[in-house]
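Teaching assistant here, posting this on the class forum so everyone can see the example we discussed in section. The complex has two components, and the goal was to see what a joint structure prediction looks like when all of them are supplied at once.
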Amino acid sequence: MSKRGFYGLLMFVFLQQDPRQIVEEAQRRSTSQSQRYEGTLRVLDAKGKIIEKRWQYDRVGSHGSSKAVLRFTAPAEVKGVALLIINHADKASDQWMWTPAINRERRIALQDRSTRFFGTDFSFEDLEERDTNQFDYKMLGEESIDGAACWKLQSTPRQSKASQYSHSYLWLRKDNFALAQIENYSKDQLVRRAHYTDIRNDQGIWTAHEIDMHDLKRNSRTILKVEKLQYNVSMKDDAFTLQALRRES
Amino acid sequence: MMLLRLLSWPYLRRHVLRWTLTLAGIVLGVAVFVAMHTANRSIFSAFDKTIDQIAGSAQLQVSAGEFGFDESILERVQAVPEVGVAVPVIEANVETKIPGQGSILLLGIDMTGDRSLRDYELKDADDAIIDDPLVFLAQPDSVMVTKEFAERNKLEVNSRVPLLTIDGEKQFTVRGIMSSAGMTQAFGGNLAVMDIYAAQQVLGRGRRFDRIDIRAKEGITVDQCKAAVKAALGESFEVETPSARGRHFEGLLRSYSTAMTISSLFALIVGMFIIYNSFAIAVTQRRSEIGILRALGATRGQIQRLFFLESITAGFVGSALGAFAGVGMASVITTYMSTVLEQTTGFAQRVTELAIDPKLIVAGIAIGVITSIFAASIPARSAARVDPVQALQKGKYQVLSAGENRRRRRMALTVSLISVACLFLSYSKLFFYAGYVLMIVAGLLLAPALTLLLSKCLRPILKQLLPAEGTLAADSLVQAPRRTSATVSALMLSLAMVVGFGGFAHSFYTSVGEWMDNALNPDFFVSPSANLVVRAITFPASIRSVIEHVAGVDQVQLVRNARVSFRNVPVMVLAIETEKVSGTVHRMPVAGTTEEMNRLTGQGKGMMVSDSFAQIHTVRMGDIVELPTPSGLLKLPIVGIVRDYSDLQGSLLIDRSVYTKWWNDDTANVARVYVKKGEDVGVVRQRVIDALAGHHGLLVLTNREVRDWIMKLIDQWFALTYNQIAVAILVAVLGIVNTLTVSITDRRRELGVMQAVGGLRNQIRRTIWIEAFSIGVIGLVLGTALGAINLYYSLGMVKRDLGGLDLDYIFPLAFVAFMIPTILAASFIAAIGPAESAVRGSLVEALEYE
């Protein structure tokens, strides 16, 4: 065995024993200075009705210190509506919605983070990027998702009031540390399942290009397709403020 | 029971008409009582239900009166650890501009969090696209309406609904139709939901909310949560359960419902006299029957029980019918009252279902039966005392003995003296009302003696006018004072009520007229709505400069008014530009000097209060009034008490600078505009309309329009009372019909003899008519006298318990003058039937009678 192979094996064995190290490694691998993509949202309700929306997503920074703006581009009725997310390392994010037609912002209160994100199956909380330090992790074993071997971990928020979920199960792919699936629980009930597919390597970062969020209470699902993904695009920090939203509306 | 079947039933069958009239008295009395209470209850119940439906699962509500508060308060509430969910709400009644739909409750909510508290279940699957808060929020013209409202107005998704906003009439798009459940049933379905931030814009609210609905965190009790929120916000805000708002509403309408209850009780008392009259007559007519029974061994107790049983039966049947009719009447009254309340208080409360209380029905029937028993007690006792020997002598009728008359007079005198004594102690509520009741009792006790006296006084006049008919009619009244006095008593009570209420109304109109002359003297008013009680829409202070720049405008005074809570009762606060207003308005001070109160109020060192506010809340000059404001507790001393009728619950006048500072709001509801001397008001008004056209959908109302609108409100407020008075008069007129019918039956033989000896039919007719006129005249005289006393007590009652209004005693001469021909005409109409019955009866039968 080569030296490199030996260290790889050592790291693998070490990571197997420490779930925090696994998620930190996954976080490290997905870290970028910025991100931009165009997303297509397809909401399929329990009765088969489909609603489609498009947005542009810009993020600067990463994880606990990132800022993101999500701006709807279609359909015409919602064009210009934006969501500003300021993530924090040690607490839940701050979120504001900008409505250009009335030219004003509204704060999304912490209490409302569990509500649906404007008719989709994502909640406002699901749009946050949280630092691994906000959770405790437990290794539950190994399972394969879509044929890929994954670690199955349990994450529990350290501050119970900071999240709507009492705990979540995470499946991280062993081969590239990409997230394959998350199941979110409220008390003992499974409320949402996010399934990550079409995982591609974009500029060295393994990224899912399709996320299928399933609301098990409503039995509806939202599929987010990520297109025109770019990492480390030049973005200005002051573009992620309410003033900037106002300016650009 | 056997006596009832063998004696009472055949008698009843022989006198169906009379018993029908008697029952009508009970029916009307109980019907009015049940109807008024059911209507009151239905409105309160609908309001409570509305609050519950709109509150959803909210356990607490934070508010600061109608002025609302800055939206930053929301974050302070959401930060309280004991709070689970806190969502902002804007609530406003806005005109729909759809013909026939009146106003609609516009509920501004924050869709992102509100679903945690309220259910917005949409009508059907096709509405899934509407069930998209993003579209709803992105388009500020979005509204959701109820299924009921949509069906009534044939609206579908994407239909347009015209609503009155700060920018005038504006078209909104229906983006969702809520199914019939929970909240959507509020206000009879006249409810629309829109985004709260869009609502702020269309209603001109700036960055303010009306209230915050709260649900406590799991594991936290409502009291714990309330205490925590109160601690976080301080005394400036009210933190109450949703049901507490119902109590506020009840407080607002207390005066109205008390007035309704009193007048319905009057109607019932009037009905009681009709019953008394019928039973007294029945005893008189059945004296021979009673005599035979007594001769056959029936005991006095049996006779008394027989009449009591009859009264119970009559009371029960009449009351049951009355209760039934009352429920029917209630739906009409409820609709009317809802409209009146909306017009006068701004609370649009549609009532879709009657809150029928079985207890009220039972109480109504019980009151009817007890009234019937009470009314029949004296006749039943008289029946039991009938002497069998005298009773079997034909042609003798019972008359009041001199002893009985003396006893009554003595009692009346004693009761009157006690009543007068109570006047000296009338600062106590108990003594005031005891004095009132005793004065009415004294009047009733004196009624038979006065009826006899007046009948005797009338005799020579009638004899002079029509020797034969006049004498016969007068004799009939003199010979049967009990029969006449009961009817006269009923008429007297009705008229006393008429004079009391009429006098109150007259005094009120006069006082309001004087107030309007003094306070409402601008040339025109600029307002977002023709309905000045709608305070939901405000306009920015910048409108002032737009109006001031119009050629010919001399002065503009901005007014902001809204209700705030004072001692848990909503009171009206008027923020005025004191310095300007004092130059144009010369209020009559009740306490304090005009110059001083204007100076101190203008400097923000005090407030003026209306005399009704001072009376209701027992405050005096110098007392400190504490008002919750978003900036803390505003404490100002009372520096003047003035007459002001801006609100029935009393009003507080503060300077606009105080308002803008403490409420952090510079909007206005009304702009009072004065035109320069020599300028044509109409021309300047048109210029103002033109100037405002590009800014806001504001209306420019002339002084006359505003005055007419106020007078219309007052008319509506009194209209129901007038209806009740009409019912009471109707009951009294039924009494006249009853009395005359019996009078004819009693004198059938006498009338037959008259015809037999050549008396003409017209002479007999005239005799009956004169008798009826005489009853009317006596009733008018006594009723007017008792009414003058009743007016005194009514005004006292109004001052004490019905709005605290201190009105001058003005005897309603014009009202009485109107009542004279009305009552005489009613008496004549009441006499037509009996008179025709008297002349058309068979002569042979009449002579064989008895």
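For the discussion questions: The mean pLDDT of chain B is 80. DSSP finds 28 helices and 21 strands in chain B. Think about how each of these relates to the inputs above.
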